[in-house]
Amino acid sequence: MRLCWILPIAAITCCTIPALALDIKDKTFITENAGKVVFSHSIHLKKKSRNSPNISCKGCHNNAMKSNAHYTMAQMYQGKSCGQCHNGKRAFALAKCTACHKVRNITFKVKETGPVLFKHNAHLQNKSECSTCHNALFKAGSNPRASMNEMEKGKSCGACHNGRNAFPLSDCSNCHPTKEITYIEKDAGNVIFSHNNHTGLYKCGECHTKIFNTIKSKIRVSMKEMEAGKSCGACHEGKTAFSVATDKDCDKCHKM
Ligand code: HEC
Ligand code: HEC
Ligand code: HEC
Ligand code: HEC
Ligand code: HEC
Ligand code: HEC
Ligand code: HEC
Ligand code: HEC
Ligand code: HEC
């Protein structure tokens, strides 16, 4: 195994034919907890011709990086493998995890609330390592779904989002984005429903899906139905909040 590529290296380094060198294929490292890392010969050998004159086959293929051996990050920090150059001097530092490890933003599809976006990059800024989450909290790939109740008990996002290590789970809209809803009413004036002004007072579950479908419903509700306790009228009845039936309060909702 070893001979079969040492020979071509020897051959190429002797006569240095860059065109051939550019054809050496990419190597994909597959790690257990840290996703994939793709190493590209052609990109590295091009860096040579630009701002880094020291990249030669031997610049990497030496005792600090033996073929088909596996290196840990700890060894890289000691100058082995990628760490020969990726030390912040010859090339970007090892601390830039995601420059090598391919991670993407993850969208959790949540039927009840709409999608929740998890950004890897935002979570790797406070020296969080891949191993903080993988695989102790999340397997990279398929996971059992977690409920908010389980999160309250410290599972999934709740391992950190507990008000001590990161913002608490009660800040629903930090994770479940909401927007203003505009009801177009030509005659009575448009109504803007502000999630922000309501979510300080109520949990999502108090409205969804008891009073409103999460997905904006096509079913229009009349003021009569509201007076009978439907839609906004479930609360805007004069006790919990100003009433839908009070003439002087129409314009609190309807903007002309
Ligand atoms: C910037 C570092 C770097 C440089 C420069 C470099 N290599 Fe590599 N090379 C690697 C890494 C990393 C691997 C994958 C490690 C392994 O196989 O264990 C690799 C693997 C290889 C392989 C095995 C490919 C395979 O598919 O298994 C060959 C052949 C090779 N290099 C030839 C060369 C030759 C020839 C040159 C000079 C023209 C060169 N390399 C320059 C880093 C480098
Ligand atoms: C001989 C020195 C050297 C070694 C060893 C080395 N690199 Fe690099 N690498 C560079 C230089 C120089 C650059 C370009 C400068 C920079 O981006 O900081 C670079 C750039 C990169 C880039 C950015 C490529 C792009 O798209 O611009 C990646 C990704 C990368 N290296 C991965 C690796 C991995 C993975 C290893 C180990 C398997 C490795 N490197 C080993 C010198 C090296
Ligand atoms: C220059 C590219 C590069 C950077 C930057 C980098 N890694 Fe790696 N990492 C690799 C490569 C390549 C491997 C696989 C090495 C092997 O199998 O020989 C690896 C392996 C790992 C592993 C599995 C081996 C081990 O050490 O347990 C973990 C975990 C890991 N990286 C986490 C990180 C974290 C966290 C960061 C940021 C602090 C980071 N890496 C930055 C290239 C990089
Ligand atoms: C703060 C927690 C956290 C940290 C730190 C973290 N991840 Fe993740 N990662 C996640 C979550 C959450 C998922 C989605 C899990 C799911 O699908 O249920 C995920 C998924 C993944 C996946 C699978 C993505 C896919 O396409 O399905 C990979 C690969 C991955 N992470 C790599 C990494 C690497 C590499 C690092 C370190 C550089 C890292 N993660 C650090 C939380 C984290
Ligand atoms: C290992 C601890 C940890 C885990 C696990 C974790 N987070 Fe975070 N998260 C943090 C920290 C620390 C911050 C930054 C401090 C803050 O905003 O309170 C943060 C910030 C955020 C932010 C604001 C930054 C941004 O992305 O715009 C969101 C949103 C977020 N986390 C969502 C999630 C979701 C969703 C999950 C579960 C899939 C999760 N987090 C799991 C620690 C964690
Ligand atoms: C740190 C981010 C985060 C915060 C804060 C958060 N959630 Fe979630 N929530 C999630 C993620 C991620 C899922 C999907 C988890 C999965 O599928 O594994 C979820 C799932 C849900 C679900 C469907 C599962 C279930 O438990 O029924 C509901 C409903 C929900 N969240 C409501 C809320 C409410 C209400 C709040 C505020 C009290 C809240 N969430 C705060 C991230 C968060
Ligand atoms: C006071 C009641 C109330 C509370 C509390 C509430 N919502 Fe809503 N939500 C609404 C109304 C009203 C609509 C529009 C429904 C309609 O037109 O059928 C809506 C619509 C939505 C939609 C669909 C938006 C669209 O454009 O289709 C999402 C997603 C949503 N809410 C998420 C949430 C989340 C997440 C929470 C908790 C953070 C929350 N809501 C809390 C009343 C509420
Ligand atoms: C779960 C109860 C509840 C539901 C359902 C509800 N509201 Fe409210 N709303 C309140 C409470 C409580 C207040 C604050 C007390 C007050 O102003 O009387 C409030 C305040 C308001 C305000 C004044 C603050 C602001 O946002 O400018 C408006 C406007 C409003 N609601 C519109 C609506 C509309 C439109 C709907 C239906 C789409 C609706 N609300 C559904 C409870 C509710
Ligand atoms: C709490 C907020 C709120 C208050 C207060 C309110 N409305 Fe409305 N109104 C709405 C919403 C939201 C719609 C659209 C409902 C839909 O499309 O499902 C609507 C629809 C209407 C419509 C068209 C549907 C129909 O019933 O004909 C008229 C007309 C109307 N309102 C008049 C009024 C008048 C007059 C008042 C004062 C007595 C008033 N509204 C007070 C929120 C409010």
Structure overview:
The structure is a single chain. It is built from 14 helices and seven strands. By secondary structure, it is α+β, with helices and mostly antiparallel strands. The chain folds into three domains: 3-100, Cytochrome C3; 106-175, Alpha-Beta Complex (Cytochrome C3), CATH 3.90.10; 181-255, Cytochrome C3 (Alpha-Beta Complex). It has a three-stranded antiparallel sheet. Strand 5 and strand 6 form a beta hairpin. The radius of gyration is 29 Å and the shape is elongated. The termini are far apart. The structure holds heme C (9 copies). One heme C is lined by residues 191, 193-194, 197-198, 201-202, 206-207, 211, 231-232, 234-236, 240-242, 252-253.
What is the CA-CA span between the terminal residues?
A: 79 Å
Instruction: State the name of the first-level CATH class of the largest domain.
Output: Alpha Beta
What is the number of helices?
A: 14
Ligands present? heme C
Number of domains: 3
Q: Let me know the CATH homologous superfamily of the largest domain.
A: Cytochrome C3
Strand content: 5-15%
CATH architecture heading of the largest domain? Alpha-Beta Complex
Quantity of strands, as a count: 7
Query: By helix and strand content, what is the structural category?
Result: alpha+beta
Name some characteristics of this structure.
Cytochrome C3; 29% helix; binds heme C; 256 residues; 14 helices; single chain; two-stranded antiparallel ribbon; alpha+beta; 7 strands; disordered N terminus
Give a topology summary.
Layout: H1 3-15, H2 18-21, E1 27-30, E2 36-39, H3 41-49, H4 57-60, H5 73-77, H6 97-100, E3 106-108, E4 116-118, H7 120-123, H8 130-133, H9 148-152, H10 172-175, E5 181-183, E6 190-193, H11 195-199, H12 204-207, H13 223-227, H14 250-253, E7 254-255
